[in-house]
Amino acid sequence: MADCKNRKKNIAVCNCTYAGCPRHGECCECVAYHRERDELPACYFDKDAEKTYNRSFANFMKYKRIF
């Protein structure tokens, strides 16, 4: 997992494209935010799936072809 205290380093690898996200590069806060909503953060999705902004588990499974 990314170093939660190193925002500058995390931003360099964060694949979230949501422009207004206040948690960009704040991995621990991002995970907690999405977890509260039964979602996954952008880093779990590939480029195409991330662009949908659908962070649901169902969408994750669809793109990962788990089921």
Q: How would you characterize the overall build of this protein?
A:
- With 67 residues, the protein is mainly α.
- It has one domain.
- It contains four helices and no strands.
Counted by DSSP, the helix tally is 4
Percent range for β-strand residues: under 5%
CA gyration radius, whole angstroms: 12 Å
Detail the poorly predicted runs: none
How would you characterize the largest beta sheet? none
Q: What string gives the helices and strands in order?
A: HHHH
Brief account:
With 67 residues, the chain is mainly alpha-helical.
Please specify the SSE layout and strand pairing.
Blueprint: H1 7-13, H2 27-36, H3 47-50, H4 57-64
Distinctive features:
single chain; 67 residues; mainly alpha; 0% strand; globular
